[in-house]
From TrEMBL:
Residues 430-451 are annotated as: Disordered. Keywords: Membrane, Signal, Transmembrane, Transmembrane helix. Residues 1-27 form the signal peptide. The chain crosses the membrane at residues 334-361, 373-392, 404-425. Pfam families: HupE_UreJ_2 (PF13795). It comes from the Bacteria. It comes from Microlunatus spumicola. This is HupE / UreJ protein.
Length: 451
């Protein structure tokens, strides 16, 4: 009986653990909404995201199946509810004005943690009174949390140009309900001092990062470098050119690429529309063309012209980053200058790291095989990108996206190979070592010493 009782107890314990485990695995985190602040020169845009079920419970709305149609039908009521629960004030107590855009709805959540749910998004524009700044204020937000005791509002800064924050959002605080008093204290937002210099330097860093992490932009430039140290021999690439000529050639090409993307970067940032999908496809095509040219001359002598033409395309892709920041006036001008400067600095770093070993390797008879192999690999990656950006997913594109992580090891291998070639060339030019004279001949030519 004791054995049976212990067995039943063990079974009960196991079942209990399984039940608890199942419950914890399917448990959802507390309901949460977010407010993402984009700080401008004279206004603050707040993107509010609220789970549909919590919004219905707090506002007394029925959003049906939470489809876009259902939310559109209640758009006025949703905006009215949020406007009644967002009351920002300056540090001197003066109220800000608030306007709301039309709400939208999307899917959100994770099946393993929060569960899948629908979320309403509304963009609010907060405008301080005359003479008040945007860098210190009380948010005065209590939507949903004033009615749902367990609700939490996470407030983050998505972008703040003056503080140099243009890429990585950070949390500034949370809005919760005091379960004892039942009150919701307003969250004070203090963004500190900002300056144009911080904004400018942040854009320089963003430009550097954009090239450093932009595998396709890097590959286009690197592939143009492959034939730079070579002479044109008929319809083929021949032997090496003098180092000075190779540097001049790539300098012209890089400058032309810079001029091309600078034009469309400015136009795109100013709002000139560009179909981003077509732009991304054309960027992949530019890499494919450069890869073919590296194997067999396609536009020999016209590299600068082609680089300028494709630079126009790459500039349209660059401009998408600036458009997301929604800048204007002096901030836009400084951002264009800083972002462009960052791009050029990173391009110069790439050229400075890669061109010298390529010039040395071009003097080795095996450079042709290496150049061809590299160009073929780049061409395959470009084809994968073209297909993926046309909507045809493929593993080649996925592998190509990870090429940026091997950039530094590849550069290191290039330098090691170049130094080996240089050492071998010096050894050959020095000729065979002189043989020392034999002891016998030395004895014959050395006069005898009298005893």
């Amino acid at each position: 009986m004791r054995v049976l009782a212990r067995a039943l107890a063990a079974v009960a314990l196991v079942l209990g653990l399984l039940v608890l485990g199942t419950g914890s695995a399917s448990a959802h985190v507390l309901p949460t909404s977010t407010v993402r602040l984009a700080v401008g020169a004279s206004t603050v845009e707040a993107e509010v995201s609220v789970p549909v079920s919590d919004l219905e419970a707090a506002a007394g709305l029925d959003l049906g199946d939470a489809s876009e149609t259902a939310v559109d039908a209640q758009a006025a009521a949703i905006d009215a509810y949020l406007l009644a629960h967002v009351r920002p004030t300056s540090d001197d107590g003066r109220a800000w004005s608030v306007t709301a855009a039309a709400p939208t709805v999307t899917g959100a959540g994770d099946a393993r943690t929060t569960g899948l749910y629908r979320e309403v998004h509304v963009l609010l524009t907060l405008t301080p009174p005359a003479g008040a700044g945007v860098r210190s204020f009380d948010l005065g937000y209590d939507a949903v949390v004033a009615r749902v005791a367990t609700h939490t509002v996470i407030v983050t800064v998505a972008s703040d140009w003056s503080s140099g924050q243009v890429a990585a959002p950070y949390e500034v605080g949370t809005v919760v309900r005091d379960t004892v008093t039942g009150t919701v204290e307003p969250l004070h937002v203090d963004l500190g001092a900002g300056s144009d210099l911080r904004g400018f330097t942040s854009m320089v860093r963003l430009g550097i990062t954009h090239i450093a992490e932009g595998t396709d932009h890097q590959l286009f430039l690197l592939t143009l470098l492959l034939p730079a140290p070579l002479l044109l021999a008929g319809r083929r690439w021949g032997g090496p050119v003098p180092a000075r000529r190779a540097v001049a050639r790539i300098a012209r090409t890089t400058l032309a690429f810079t001029l091309g993307h600078s034009v469309t970067l400015a136009l795109g940032a100013l709002g000139v529309p560009a179909p981003q999908r077509a732009v991304e496809v054309l960027i992949a095509v530019s890499i494919l063309v450069a890869a073919v040219h590296a194997v067999r001359p396609v536009f020999a002598g016209r590299e600068a012209v082609v680089a300028a033409a494709f630079g126009l395309v790459h500039g349209l892709a660059f401009s998408a980053t600036l458009r997301e920041l929604d800048l204007s006036g002096a901030r836009l001008v400084l951002s264009l200058l800083g972002f462009n400067l960052g791009i050029e600095l990173m391009q110069l770093v790439v050229v400075a790291l890669v061109l010298p070993p390529l010039v040395l390797l071009a003097r080795d008879g095996r450079y042709r095989e290496g150049r061809t192999a590299a160009a073929v690999l780049v061409g395959v990656a470009a084809v994968g990108w073209v297909l993926a950006r046309l909507g045809l997913t493929n593993p080649v594109a996925d592998l190509a996206d990870g090429l940026g992580t091997v950039a530094l090891p590849v550069v290191a291998v290039l330098w090691v190979a170049a130094l080996v070639v240089l050492r071998s060339a010096r050894a050959v030019s020095a000729g065979p070592p002189r043989r020392p004279a034999s002891s016998g001949s030395a004895a014959a030519t050395t006069p005898a010493t009298p005893g």
